[in-house]
Structures are given as C-alpha cells and as structure tokens.
Specification:
This protein is α/β, with parallel strands linked by helices. It is 44% helix and 17% strand. The chain is built from eight helices and nine strands. Helix 1 links the parallel strand 1 (9-12) and strand 2 (33-38). The longest helix has 35 residues, at 105-139. The protein is globular. Bound molecules: nicotinamide-adenine-dinucleotide. Nicotinamide-adenine-dinucleotide binds next to helix 1, strand 2 and strand 5.
C-alpha cells in the first residue's frame, strides 16, 4: 500500500539504529523529509546517507534528547532545514534494568528522563509552531492533520520485573500521549503511542560479557536480554518469534499516515500478540 507523505516534514529521535532507523527510512520512502536525531553522530549520519542514496530527503542533528536545551535546537533544526514540522516520532530510548532494591535514584531518573521528560520537552518545543500553523490553516478553511507518535512498550502497559524505571517511563509517556491528544485535537494533531513487544535490535540482542553498551553521560550501560529470557519470550509469543525493525516501523507508519486521521489518544501494541 502506498502511503503519500510528500510535502510532509518528520522528526525521528533515536533514528541512528534499530526501530528509529527503520521508521526514518519508511517515512522518507513515503516522501517525507526527515530530520534524524541520535545520541551517536556516526549512526545518525549513516541513516541520513542511506535515505539520501535512495533518493529521499534527510538531515541529521546528533545530540542527547535528555539535555534540557536540546529539544528546542532539534525542533528548530527541522524547521530551518525543511521549513515545517508535521510528524514527530519520540523513539529514542534504552534500558537500564535492575530489581528495585538495586535501582539507584540516578538510574530510575535516567529512565524517566529518556522515555518521558524528553518527549515532553520536544512536544513543548514544537507547540508554538504547531499551534500557530494550525490556527492559520483553520482560518483559511483547511484541515491539515499533523502526527505525533510516542514509542512505548508492553513493559509500560503490563509492567515487567527488573524494569521499575523503564516501565514507569513507558507508562508515563502514555499519559502524555492521551493528554496531548486532548490538548492538540483542536489543532488537528493526532497523538498516539505504539508499544512494542520483542523487536530484534541492539536493545534485545543476547546479553553477553562483551555485549553492547550505551554511553550515558560517560557511564557505560549494558543493553541486551538474557538468552534464556529471549527464548522464553519467543515461546509465549503467539507469532512465535521476535519482530523486525521494519515490522515495528509499519505500525508507526500507520499513525504517521492519513490512514489514522480519525484515531487519536490510542496505544497500538505491535508485539506479535505477546503481553507480559
Ligand atoms: N527492541 C524492542 O524489543 C523494544 C521493545 C519495546 C520498546 N522499545 C522501544 O523502542 C525504541 C527504539 O529502541 P530500539 O530497540 O530500536 O533500540 P536501539 O538501541 O537499536 O536504538 C535506539 C537508538 O536511540 C538512541 N538513543 C538512546 N538514548 C538517546 C538519547 N538520550 N538521545 C538521542 N538518542 C538516543 C540510541 O543511540 C540508539 O541509536 C526505544 O524507545 C525502546 O525503548 C523497543
């Protein structure tokens, strides 16, 4: 099915790898100009390069979405590069797991910062442009729909042992989603969330001694899932397997497209039928 996003401008956080990269690629292939963000400039540049090579429009701004002044810079970069902002996907994220008695204040706060505070700041930074543009369009008698998609998890909807911070951040962003759907409905913005089950990315690769780490303000945090846990999850998943980043991006594309113009404040679970 062809989704037409010609003339739309999208912003995708955490688009250097995994699901965010697949979302950026899908949006660009549908015609949108994409402002890519990632903490790591190398992967962000790779996503931009891949989109440009296949004829799409993209630019990137590397940086940490949890830095207090970064949200406005990112929104301004999209506006300056492409002259508008129609689609925002708050996707950047990572896990920093532990049972509650071993979870530090810093660790819990880091999970709220990346999964809840950063999306809040980005939407607040975009609000002036969105409101002013929508008011003008409405005054001209035009209904132009804009899209926000916040990424959550079945850890947020169902809870997951070892993830007090992650689950809280991912549950919190659902509250943000439902509230912004109500605040921004009058500006013709659909605000929805997509929650993933098990998707094959760096976050869910088998956890080994020499596994992947994410550098958070100089601290190396191991990401990955215990191999036994991965097998157990696949066994209880109705589709019997992990999803691909492309499959994950498909659910997000629905909420970025005109197909979802009359859907707002909802959470779509893309997890092969799995719930915790
Ligand atoms: N993979 C899964 O099974 C799964 C399940 C549920 C939810 N999710 C969510 O999906 C989203 C994407 O995760 P993924 O699986 O593609 O992981 P990933 O590690 O492959 O990609 C996430 C990207 O976000 C970037 N990022 C992390 N912190 C950042 C920051 N502070 N500022 C800017 N960029 C930052 C990383 O550098 C990375 O490139 C996350 O929000 C994650 O919580 C993933």
């Amino acid at each position: 099915m062809h989704v037409d996003l010609d003339s739309k401008v999208a912003l995708v956080t955490g688009a250097g790898r995994g699901i965010g990269r697949a979302i950026a690629a899908h949006l660009a292939a549908s015609g949108a100009a994409v402002m890519i963000n990632d903490l790591d400039s190398g992967p962000a540049a790779e996503t931009e390069g891949a989109i440009r090579q296949s004829g799409g429009r993209a630019a990137y701004l590397a940086g940490d979405v949890t830095a207090p002044d970064f949200a406005q810079k990112l929104v301004d970069a999209a506006l300056q590069s492409f002259g508008g902002l129609d689609i925002i996907v708050n996707n950047a994220g990572y896990t920093w797991d532990n049972v509650i008695q071993k979870t530090t204040d810093e660790q819990f706060q880091a999970m709220l910062d990346i999964h809840l505070v950063a999306p809040f700041r980005i939407l607040r930074a975009a609000s002036a442009h969105i409101r002013e543009t929508a008011k003008r369009e409405i005054a001209e008698g035009r209904r132009v729909m804009r899209k926000v998609v916040n990424i959550t998890s079945i850890a947020g909807t169902d809870g997951n042992p070892g993830q007090a911070g992650y689950s809280s951040g991912k549950a919190g962003v659902i509250g943000l989603t439902k509230t912004m759907a109500k605040e921004w409905g009058r500006y013709n913005v659909n605000v929805n969330a997509v929650g993933f089950g098990l998707i094959e990315t760096r976050l869910t690769q088998p956890l080994t001694q020499a596994g992947a780490t994410i550098d958070v303000q100089g601290r190396q945090i191991a990401v990955g899932v215990q191999p036994k846990m991965l097998e157990a999850l696949k066994a209880v998943c109705p589709l019997g397997r992990a999803g691909t980043p492309e499959e994950a991006a498909g659910a997000v594309l629905f909420f970025c497209s005109p197909l979802s113009d009359y859907v707002t404040g909802e959470v779509l679970i893309c997890g092969g039928g799995m719930h915790f």
